[in-house]
Amino acid sequence: MTDFHAHTAAQRPPSPQPAGSEAASHLQRGTLGVADIVFFVAAAAAPLTVMAGVAPLAILFGGIGAPAAYVGVGVLLCLFAVGFTAMTPYIRNTGAFYAYIARGLGRPAGLGAALLALFSYNALQIGLFGAFGFFSAATMNDLLGVDLPWPVYAFAGIAVVWFLGFRSINFGAKVLAVLLVIETAILLLLAVAILVKGGADGLTLDSFTPAHMFTSQMSGPLGLAVAAFIGFEATAIYREEARDPDRTVPRATYLAVGFLGLFYTFIVWVIIQAFGSDQVVGAAAQNPAEMFFTAMTRYVGGWASDLQRVLIVTSLLAALLSFHNAITRYAYALSAEKVTPAALGRIHPRHGSPWIAGIAQSALAVVVVTVFAVVGVHPYNQFFLWVNTPGVVGILALQALAAFAVVAFFRRNPGTRGEGRLRTLVAPAAAGILLAVTTGLVCKRLDLFTGAGPAVNWSLAALTPVVFLTGVFVALRVRRRRPDVYARLATTDIG
Residue 427 belongs to what domain range? Predict the structure, then answer.
């Protein structure tokens, strides 16, 4: 490995510095530990929102076998993580998927991945402001009688997220830690209450029998489960700010995927026990949005249900901050290589954050929210679902490409063969194939995400190849017109 690093360092052009002051030309280094990065990843997944808002649909479409979908996706992503973490020591760039794909599949594919990542994370983050505005308005009206339109809360959320992103990454990690612990605790409180009372008809493991796990109905829950893990690649985005990144990033990746997989599976199984195997699908069909609140009221009390409504809002806020940080760090990485404007790479001299990129991302969110508010669309059923969905498809496609990139990278670099075939070939190749199939499955069942017709669904799905190919075209144009910039792509060493 040492010889390989020496070889690539010799081939690498001098690392450019992002624009900004000499005293603050890079992000805060050695700031984040394993737990901090796990908090960022898990918070982006928004466990409480995913469980209360999406898990009932997984049960509705997949029956009592729905928990198995979360197990399956967790195993798949652990398989992906085997190759992803094997390549981590050879990537000295904060661009995550962009850097991995460029080093494995070539610079044109890498720049296509970079543009797709920026698009997808922005779609995920900005779409969430619709959900944040919707749930905030409903919660304030139900609990306090304050009736304000959803854009008011969406704009307030943009301001809060910008401020937290503007402050140091360590400050943001502490905020996310508190919010994640609280939203996890309320779900565990519900789970303990259900287990202590024995559920509706006694506790069973029917969900994990072959008759319920392997059915044609499981395609729907699998697609919904995949979306619940979105954002776990953020472990690599924080490489520059991590302590001992060669160890911290892999550990955080496995811990994040493992925690989310086990936690989701457990909570979905528990909620099935709350209503009983024979009654749970009917309960989900009757009112999926209220399913978790009904269980909370029945097993814990009305006060806990009200608290859960508030914590869904804070869960969304945590996810918004996580995605905001991911977006600004992608912009920072691309600015270092002169792909995006130099201003996006400027680091605040006091807080060590990419503050210009943060302002740009927040301004974009303001523009999009304003447009949708003026048009008069529903903040959840249309704004959130329609904007968020192409982001989900884009990230899934990037995961598949990254898995194949791992295979290509280790085949093209003989100095890395000591990693072993399981980590460099078998696991990433299997993960790439399965992720590609999963991406196709999600596109086929996009109606589960959007509630819209084929015309809208295929238009949203088509955005992923269009954005990716646009990035490829830009890379080829840069290769002709600016070969010096092209040579730098995915080679900037943050150290």
Answer: 25-488
With residues binned 3-state (H G I as helix, E B as strand, rest as coil), the percentages for the chain, rounded to 5, are 80, 0, 20
Predicted model pTM: 0.86
H helical segments located in 146-213: 150-166, 169-196, 210-213
Q: How far apart are CA 55 and CA 184, in angstroms?
A: 15
Owner of token pair 């508190």? 178
The token pair that represents 187 in the structure block? 């779900």
Write the CB contacts of 247 (distance below 8 Å, at least 6 apart in sequence).
none
User: Which residues on adjacent β-strands are paired with residue 32?
Assistant: 242
18 domain-assigned: no
Kindly state whether residue 109 falls inside one of the protein's structural domains: yes
In the chain, how many domains are there?
1
Where does 63-168 have alpha helices with state H? 66-87, 97-105, 107-144, 150-166
The CATH number covering residue 327 comes to: 1.20.1740.10
Q: What is the pLDDT of residue 465?
A: 96
DSSP assignment string, 363-408: HHHHHHHHHHHHHT--IIIIIIHHHHHHHHHHHHHHHHHHHHHHHH
Buried b (16+ CB within 10 A) or exposed e, 151-186: bebbbebbeebbebbbbbbeebbebbbebbebbbeb
Q: How far is CA 416 from CA 7, 176, 200, 419, 420, in A?
A: 12, 36, 55, 6, 9
For the chain, list residues with pLDDT below 50.
1-24, 494-495
User: What's the CA dihedral at 206, 210, 216, 218 to 10 degrees?
Assistant: 60
In a domain, 216, yes or no: yes
Of 353, 355, 332, 328, the closest CA to residue 342 belongs to: 332
pLDDT the model gives residue 11: 39
Distance CA 278, CA 281 (A): 7
Going from the C-alpha of 476 to that of each of 107, 110, 428, the distances in angstroms are 9, 11, 27
8-state DSSP, 18: P
Classify residue 9: in a domain, yes or no. Answer: no
Q: Which pLDDT score is estimated for 417? A: 60
Q: Give pLDDT, residue 493.
A: 55
